[in-house]
Ferric uptake regulation protein
Amino acid sequence: MDILKELRESGLKVTIPRLRILQLFQEGKGKHLSADDVYRFLLTEKIDVGLATIYRVLMQFAEAGILFRRHFESGHAVFELNEGTHHDHLVCTICGQVDEFVDEGIERRQDEIAAERGFVLHEHALSLYGTCAVCTRQKQLLSKL
Ligand SMILES: [Zn+2]
Ligand SMILES: [Zn+2]
């Protein structure tokens, strides 16, 4: 994806912070980033942008359809690139790790359930909350001490 083109087409002015923030997502420095995460990345690069500004920029990207805003139960809103494909999430409530999955069976059932009720489905967001493999192992180790 061409960042400059993407920015211009969204009608947003091309500024250094906007460019850099969009780049962060494209570089794949973690796929699901909160405003805090972005703030920390920029700090390490000595780019001085306040948290409020970062949040505003992220929301502008979300409104422009460049990013998705996710509301996970376990904390702050996180953002990820809109890559034009759908996926669902597994969220670790201990470390915040976010994994993605797509399951044909689940997708199909949701369509069927909506259709049975004459409900026109626009979109869905499915998030499973629990403990990731790393945190589960850590818990088991600690319990043996
Ligand atoms: Zn975890
Ligand atoms: Zn995702």
In short: The CA atoms of residues 10 and 64 lie 6 Å apart. The mean pLDDT is 90. The pocket of zinc ion (ligand 2) is lined by residues 31-32, 80, 87, 89, 100 (CB under 6 Å). The beta strands are 33-34, 67-70, 78-81, 88-92, 98-101, 127-130.
